[in-house]
Design brief:
This is GRAS domain family. It comes from Musa troglodytarum. Pfam families: GRAS. The chain has 366 residues and is α/β, with parallel strands linked by helices. Helix content is 41%, strand content 17%. Strands 1, 2, 3, 4, 5, 6, 7, 8 and 9 form a nine-stranded mixed beta sheet that branches. The longest helix has 20 residues.
């Protein structure tokens, strides 16, 4: 009964069954093989990913919640600054940035220079993204520079990012940080956080899946991922019919995540989602960052996004509201998008703390 064309449960079981079969074939290659796998067992191309993200943006508030709320946090950091520099550690098609450019251009005193550094592994894709963003900036009469960095985020060095002393720097980590957890020694994450700190950012904005998919016990991981993606598939079923090819294409992108966390282990398992509470401990206790907290503007922005979609099953929660820790004291530390009672994604903003324990000099300006 499992099929990508059925009910949410049928579709979910179809993708998890594929993932389980792939795991068995990987564990026992001398016994099992998967002959002529369907296309969805093969990793999607960058072009497919771009199409999928645009489709998802039309039917679900997830991309807009991530992009617009993070942009609001960036705009707050850039207030009154003349030269601004965004470092996107996984830019893909840069769909987040046109709205930020429009907001900066519409200010009474727009910045005199905007630079976006985009990190990615495909030179042609980075070039296309840079050309597209440059055209948008030109139409807005906004002085703009795009700096492409063709490399994996694990191999980045500070000199590659072209950080300049007179710039107000912000780092964007959208659905990226969990991939550094593949190194179970913790070194890859510490190196990444060290690189981010070395840019002396005014803010570091972060978005992550609100889930616990990094448990060492495979059975626990399987059960939790089933619950999480059941909510995702249910939310898509609410807006698109069962035979919708657009819905199938979007769900296949989530199936790629499912395959990785179910079928892979060790360094190959990169979809290691963790809850905001775990990330908060990592950022504050291990990474040397303080949480900037959630302001009224971010709350209004995220709620306005939900009103754009005719569905009352989504809601926004404030993580850590009223707690007395960090620079977001009393205002909460993160914003979480929920489907019914299931948390889906959390966004937050951070700033480095120096060795003496005081805030970065940028904090007073944010």
């Amino acid at each position: 009964m499992a099929t990508p064309m059925g009910t949410p449960v049928h579709r979910l079981v179809a993708y998890f069954t594929e993932s389980l079969a792939l795991r068995v074939a990987r564990l026992y290659p001398h016994i099992f093989t998967i002959n002529a796998p369907p296309r969805r067992l093969i990793d999607a191309s960058e072009e497919d990913d771009a199409t999928t993200l645009r489709l998802l943006d039309l039917i679900s508030p997830i991309p807009k919640f991530l992009h617009f709320t993070l942009n609001e946090m960036l705009l707050k950091a850039f207030e009154g600054r003349d030269r601004v520099h965004v470092i996107d550690l996984d830019i893909k098609q840069g769909l987040q940035w046109p709205s930020l450019l429009q907001s900066l251009a519409s200010r009474p005193r727009p910045p005199s220079h905007v630079r976006i550094t985009g990190v990615g592994e495909s030179r042609p894709d980075l070039h296309a993204t840079g050309v597209r963003l440059a055209r948008i900036a030109e139409s807005l009469h906004l002085p703009f520079e795009f700096h492409p960095v063709v490399d994996r985020f694990e191999d980045l060095r500070l000199w590659m990012l072209h950080v300049k002393r007179e710039e107000c720097v912000a780092v964007s980590c959208s659905l990226l940080m969990h991939r550094a957890l593949h190194d179970e020694s913790g070194k890859a994450l510490m190196d990444l956080l060290g690189l981010i700190r070395s840019t002396n950012p005014a803010t570091v904005v972060m978005a992550e899946q609100e889930a616990e998919h990094n448990e060492p016990d495979w059975g626990t991981r399987l059960a939790r991922s089933l619950n999480y993606y059941a909510a995702i598939f249910d939310s898509l079923d609410d807006v698109l019919p069962q035979d919708s090819h657009a819905r199938i294409k979007v769900e296949e992108s989530f199936a790629k995540e499912i395959r990785n966390m179910v079928a892979c282990e060790g360094d190959e398992r990169i979809e290691r989602h963790e809850s905001f509470q775990r990330w908060r401990r990592r950022m504050m206790q291990e990474g040397g960052f303080a949480c900037l907290g959630i302001g009224e503007r971010e709350m209004l922005q995220s709620r306005m996004i939900l009103r754009m979609y005719s569905c009352d099953k989504y809601s926004i929660d404030v993580e850590g509201e009223g707690e007395g820790e960090g620079h977001g004291r009393g205002r909460g530390h993160g914003l979480t998008l929920r489907w019914l009672d299931h948390p889906l994604y959390t966004v937050s903003a951070w700033v480095p703390v120096d060795v003496a324990g005081s805030s970065s000099p940028h904090l007073s300006q944010v």
